Description:
The protein has one helix and 43 strands.
Amino acid sequence: MADTIRNIKSYENDIQTAIDSLPSTGGEVYVPAGSYTISAQITFADNVTMRGAGESTVFVFGAGLATDVFFVNDRKNVHFKDFKIDANKASAGISHGILFIGSCIDCSARGIYTENGSTAMLECRNGGSRITFDNCTCINNEGDPLLIRSGSDCIVTNCHIDNVHTQAGANGIGVFTSVGDDYVCQGITVNNNTVNNALVYGINVENAIDVTVSGNIVNNCKSAGLAVIGSSKRVTMSDNVAKGNANGIYVGNASSGTGSFVSLCNNIVTGNHAHGIQVFLSGNVTIVGNTVAENTGSVTTNGIYLNRANQCIVSGNNIFGNQDYGFYTWHGSYNLITSNMVTGNGDNGIATAGGSADYNLIANNISVNNTDTGITTVGSNNQIAYNITD
Length: 390
């Protein structure tokens, strides 16, 4: 076993030399507690683990450093464990922290703490498969600190993201495919994470397929806590808590308005200040079993708002205490609004409006004790049946 473990103290703290000294079958490089300045890119072979002593092992990016620092390119079974990265954005250049790029497979970062980053600190990009980010923390980052870009079957779990700011498009956790990427981002799981204070979205799923986002807590993000945008398909967001954001959950331009098959189920969406849940220019969105409550703001703030969204199912939700409408659809058709409890909202409980708000079914809802009427409709061929109103 000793032949496959290298302590960098035996290599004058030179990490790359310690890695390169491992046998071709791989091994582990151990970095004891201490502060280590990184002045150049570090690369990895297959089957290598780099392990620290927890947050007492600190890598500080040197002044002017601008590179992908811990660089894993087309490798398998490379793992990072238990250390801290200070990306030193005040002095270093734009440098990624840990980057899995190309056809990496079965790699991970666990127990990694990052701070002061100027771009992504933890990233899988362009074809990685079965990459895991577990129990990582990213604090005070200028751009998206944790990204799955064009990867497949990857997991982000038990991570904590806080204070993501400055750069346009800065999200907490990003799952996306960019125009021109060689691979589609698909089969991603994002669960049991906490994201606070992101400049745009807390968790953003963009142009991705077969994504599950569950059990996350997302607070105080400036555009939305949770978002599904672009040509994303078959995305499930369930059992999350979104509080204090602009929109709690936002589905926008999903698959150009058709075929998105996004499911929003059993989420708690409270205290947001744009809308609780907003669906914009999207179709085939299922909104079931959510608690959407006490969303209030300086502008119109509805519980659930379908904005030019069609063929959606809104069922079994508890919608109460929102500033304006409990449920409101604008220019939306062929939607099913059924079996919701809608109470104590500041305008109508349930409303349809706009010139093409047609062929909606509103049935078996309880809409009572709202400031205005329980149910009101504008449009043609809407069906209203078996509701309880006052």
